[in-house]
Amino acid sequence: MEPRYLRGAFIAYEPDGYPDRKRTIPFRFNPESLSRQLSTAQGKGGAGVAVGSGTSGTDAADEQSADAASGPLKESFNVLVRFDGVDRHGTGHPASKGLPPELGVAPEIAALEDLLHPAEAESSHSSDGSEPVAARARRPTVLFVWGKKRVYPVRITGMAVEETLYNRELYPLRAEVDVSLEVLGEADARGNLAVQNALEFTHGNRRQLAQMFFDNTAEQSSQILPL
Description:
227 residues, 5 helices
C-alpha cells in the first residue's frame, strides 16, 4: 500500500470572516518543490547611520551591533501548482465530484485566480440615506498550508499560468500555475486574527524545531571552536 501524504492547500478567509467564512483549495498534486527566499530589510545602521557632533562614523556604526535587528524579515515563496483534469476524472478522485468534466480544470484555475481579486462586498448606505456607496474592496486573507508545522499567512503577488492541453470546447485539461507568495508580517497581523494566529503558530514551531537541533548538537561545540 502506498503511503498517504498530507495535502497542501490554500485557505482563504473572507474579510472579517475568520474562522468560519473560508474557501479551501487543496492541491490535487502536492508541488514537488517550492522555492523560499528570506532576507532582512536594511535598517538605520550601516550607510544610513546619522553621525552627530563628536561621534565618528565608525563609532556610530559600532552602536548598531551585529546582533541588532536591522529591519523586518521578508520571506517569499514560489510554488508550482499542477492541475490534470484527465487524471482527475479518469480515476474517480473525490475532487471530480460535482465538477463537469467538459470544463476541464477551468474551475480550479478560476478558484486560484479569484484569490487575487477583492472579495465581494455589499453596498453600504451613505450617512444621509440618499444613495448607496460601494464598500471599500478588501482581499481575502490567504493562508498557505504546508504540513502540520507550517501555516503561512501570505499575499499572492503574481501567477504565471501555462495551459498545455485543451478539449474541443477549448477548456484547459492540463495546466501548471507558478504562484508567487509574500509572507505577511507583524504589521499585517494588527487587527487580523487569522494572520496573527498563523504567524504565532509557525514561528513557534520553527523555534521548537531549531531548539531540538541545538540541543542535539550542544555537546559538539567543544570540538569545533575553543570558546
